[in-house]
Structures are given as structure tokens and as C-alpha cells.
Design a protein that fits this description.
Blueprint: E1 6-10, H1 15-27, E2 31-35, E3 53-56, H2 61-73, E4 78-79, H3 82-88, H4 91-100, E5 109-111, H5 114-124, E6 128-131, E7 142-144, H6 147-157, E8 167-169
Length: 170
């Protein structure tokens, strides 16, 4: 059986990556470790690498997204792909993708202004949860118990990064 050379992209070696490394060694698979933070990616030279396939293991959504894009534009195969990373890394896109395939999802809404966010909350009802569309581990999650708490949260978010001005509710 022919074994493939795998490139593994990462920004932090966690227990999961160490397990993958151990399993690759036990199978005799050549694993090329690529710490994405250690050197720049030359965008003017989007060319194929000598690995046959890449595993995307970055903890950072944005590092993973962009390093995958560079490799795919160079003709490389990456698991998970740029498209799947874009969709799954954004709560609104993931919700829409699941719902479009008939997979049950919680009642959710997205709004792009304080005014339309209040309309969405009036439809969803309280209590509700406001989440950033990108992020994990519950960071910047905000429970909204009433219109006053919602207004206060919207006031705060208008001074934050534009990603936090996309209001995703459930």
C-alpha cells in the first residue's frame, strides 16, 4: 500500500495533534509539520508543496482560514477545505447551511443594525442570547433578558470590531 505524505498545519501543538503525529508514525506515514506562525506564506508564489494532502489543525480560525487559502490557491488539497472552513467557522453561515439541508436548528436571527436587532428580538422573544458570528469558547456571548439589556449591549458593540456589529441571536 502506498502511503501519502501529509502536511499538518498548526499554530499550537495540542494533545490531538500529538496523537495524530503518533498515529502517523505508527502507520509509517510521512508527516510534515508546518507551524503557520513560524514563517511567512509567500502569496505571490501560490504553488504546490511536496505534501500530497494537508490537515488543517490551527486553533485560530483566521490563521487556519488564510493558510488554507494560500495552499488551495497553489493547487493543494486541504482537509478541511477553505469553503468548509468559511461556512463552519461562522455561526450564521453554519446555521444557514444546516437549515438549507433540512437539518433542525434553533430559532435564530441575524441583524445588521441596532434597530433591526431590536426587531429580531421582538420576534424571537426574551430571554435570548447574542453571539459573535466568529469565535468560540463562549467569548463575547451576551445573555439578553429584556430590551434594556439588549440596548446596552448594542451600545457597547457599536465601538467594537465590525464583526461584533453583526448581531446573531438565538
Amino acid at each position: 500500500m502506498k502511503l501519502v505524505k501529509i502536511g499538518m498545519l498548526f499554530d499550537m501543538l495540542r494533545v490531538e495533534e500529538k496523537m495524530l503525529m503518533r498515529e502517523a508514525r505508527s502507520q509509517g506515514t510521512e508527516l510534515d509539520l508546518i507551524r503557520v506562525c513560524s514563517k511567512p506564506f509567500e502569496l505571490w508564489q501560490c504553488q504546490a508543496n511536496n505534501s500530497e494532502i494537508f490537515l488543517q489543525r490551527c486553533v485560530s480560525y483566521f490563521r487556519g482560514l488564510h493558510s488554507t487559502g494560500v495552499l488551495e490557491m497553489g493547487g493543494n488539497r486541504v482537509v478541511n477545505s477553505l469553503v468548509s472552513t468559511l461556512i463552519c467557522g461562522d455561526k450564521a453561515f453554519a446555521t444557514m447551511a444546516l437549515a438549507s439541508k433540512g437539518i433542525p436548528t434553533p430559532k435564530t436571527a441575524i441583524a445588521f443594525s441596532k434597530e433591526s436587532a431590536m426587531l429580531a428580538l421582538n420576534e424571537l422573544g426574551y430571554p435570548a442570547v447574542l453571539k459573535p458570528v466568529v469565535g468560540s469558547w463562549g467569548r463575547f456571548l451576551a445573555p439578553l433578558n429584556d430590551a434594556e439589556s439588549a440596548q446596552a449591549m448594542f451600545e457597547t458593540r457599536q465601538y467594537m470590531h465590525p464583526l461584533y456589529q453583526i448581531y446573531y441571536f438565538l
